[in-house]
Amino acid sequence: MAKLIGLTFVGLLLALYKNHQSSYQRRLNALREVTPVDLPNCNLVKGVETGAEDLEILPNGLAFLSTGLKYPGIKSFDPDKPGKILLMDLNEKDPAVLELEITGNKLDKSSFNPHGVSTFTDEDNAVYLLVVNHPDSKSTVEVFKFQEEERSLLHLKTITHELLPSINDIAAVGPESFYATNDHYFADPYLKSWEMYLGLSWSNVVYYSPDKVQVVAEGFDFANGIGISPDGKHVYIAELLAHKIHVYEKHANWTLTPLKVLDFDTLVDNISVDPVTGDLWVGCHPNGIRIFFYDSEKPPGSEVIRIQNILSEEPKVTVVYAENGTVLQGTTVASVYKGKLLIGTVFHRALYCDL
Ligand SMILES: *[C@@H]1O[C@H](CO)[C@@H](O)[C@H](O)[C@H]1NC(C)=O
Ligand SMILES: *[C@@H]1O[C@H](CO)[C@@H](O)[C@H](O)[C@H]1NC(C)=O
Ligand SMILES: CC(=O)N[C@H]1CO[C@H](CO)[C@@H](O)[C@@H]1O
């Protein structure tokens, strides 16, 4: 009898394991292969070799790129060098990148580890760059003022908060206020492995301002990119391991209510909203195993999708670019400017194409 119970117990554990194993494979989209989709005139951006995890393009064509991210368990081609913020002028014919010098004396540049970036432009046209930073595995948001003439960033402030333990991405709504997605990577990579493996969906979204900080959405299987519609009425959140994009209604008091959810066959990372058309451009990982377990023989591929009319009954979803990793590995973000597409990656290169 005892033996039977023992065997049943082992059987149960095996079934549980198998169940998790298959759900894990499904969440990571482990079996997906990429069908290539090409774009004309693609060029790798010179000077980007260690990632452009996030980027944002200002309406005047100046683009900020964060490079050199060190992320627990994820590949880095230069793990000993601090990260940087790069500037690219998309009005130039063959734009190159320039490292923005950081001025001010409160930021430790040797441990600078930039991740998500977001800009806010005030009524006097001053541009603030908010950067998620992970110095020594902590999570902070650094506020910079962009000095366009000097091509530098003046560091103004470091923001930390107990509700922001492990920030991934931010969407600025003021010089010191933003929505942020929290994953658990930096808070506790070990716990994160279990959370990821078991699909515990502990990830959330927090609204931060100097007077109020609150959780505005939760229960995500790895909340990643976040974006705001041009009219400021909707917030889009990418749920990486559930392959979903959530649309929320944004209220005057900054709370969010769920409106609709879109499903994809790819791991959706960062969302960039075209300020002119309102289209969403999403950098995606077609196969998550390859991004989380790097193998140079089977590198992670790249995929960029565009979503048009997201609020309508039938949004139009187009795969605009897809590639198996020979050219571009691990795309996280894509953004448009005047008929061109700039594509960034976690730890690899950046690609600039005609649309
Ligand atoms: C925020 O505004 C929404 C919409 O008006 C309302 O339903 C909600 O109760 C408000 N929440 C708080 C905490 O004030
Ligand atoms: C990726 O695609 C290219 C061109 O289609 C092909 O030559 C290459 O073998 C593929 N690589 C992998 C790792 O599948
Ligand atoms: C290009 C682009 O829009 N990137 C966005 C990635 O996501 C963060 C917020 O989650 C935005 O701040 C970036 O602008």
What does this structure look like?
- It is built from three helices and 25 strands.
- The chain is mainly beta and 355 residues long.
- The protein has one domain: TolB, C-terminal domain (Neuraminidase, 6 Propeller), CATH 2.120.10.
- It has a five-stranded mixed β-sheet, with no helix packed on it. A four-stranded antiparallel β-sheet has the order 1-25-24-23, with no helix packed on it.
- It is globular and about 75 Å long.
- It binds 2-acetamido-2-deoxy-beta-D-glucopyranose (3 copies).
- Residues 251, 253, 255 line the site of one 2-acetamido-2-deoxy-beta-D-glucopyranose.
- One 2-acetamido-2-deoxy-beta-D-glucopyranose (NAG) binds at residues 36, 298, 324, 326.
Topology at a glance:
Layout: H1 2-27, E1 43-44, E2 54-57, E3 62-67, E4 84-89, E5 97-99, E6 101-103, E7 114-121, E8 127-133, E9 140-147, E10 152-159, E11 167-174, E12 177-182, H2 189-198, E13 203-208, E14 213-220, E15 223-228, E16 234-239, E17 244-250, E18 256-263, E19 267-273, E20 280-285, H3 288-292, E21 302-308, E22 316-323, E23 331-337, E24 340-345, E25 351-354
The site of one 2-acetamido-2-deoxy-beta-D-glucopyranose has 15 residues, from strand 2, strand 7, strand 11, strand 15 and strand 19.
